[in-house]
Amino acid sequence: MKYWLAGAAVAVFAGAAWTVMAATPQETVDQRIAGMKGLGGNLQAAAKAVTPAEVQAKLGAAIAFAETIPTLFPKGTGIGDKGVTKTRALQEIWAKPAEFKAASDALVNALKAANAAAGDKAKLDAAFGEVRKSCGGCHTPFRGPEIE
Ligand code: HEC
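Above: the input record for the complex with heme C. Below: its predicted structure, written as tokens.
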């Protein structure tokens, strides 16, 4: 009985350590896809928001995510990499890291400009146009064909 309990405790500990420390390559992919979807959701909500404060709350969340984008693509998590079964991440991301970072910075800057334009409808609409362009500015060179 004592032995069994100790074994169970070790198994529980090992399970916890696994979830905290060692995301598999595919889990890393799944997490960043979920984050990208959240980014899209925050932008839609910002576009529909009525008060400047609401716009800025949604854009603030979008900015916080956008600033992390380069860290969400560790080497070994692209199309063709071991353990990765479902991703659109092209190997160009790791072949051209400076360009990938620049595309990410362009999104952050466009989001910040939109944030500063909250409250001025015409300026905000124009800024949203730039934000959308910056999504394409990264997707076109760095995202592969749709999966499924
Ligand atoms: C710096 C590069 C970069 C920027 C900027 C960027 N994305 Fe992405 N995005 C990617 C990559 C690469 C993937 C594919 C990730 C994967 O499959 O592992 C992706 C995936 C997605 C997905 C997941 C669904 C799918 O079919 O791929 C959505 C949704 C998405 N992006 C929305 C956006 C929106 C909206 C913006 C702009 C507000 C944006 N992204 C800006 C690189 C970027």
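Notes for the reader.
The mean pLDDT is 89.
The CA atoms of residues 63 and 134 lie 13 Å apart.
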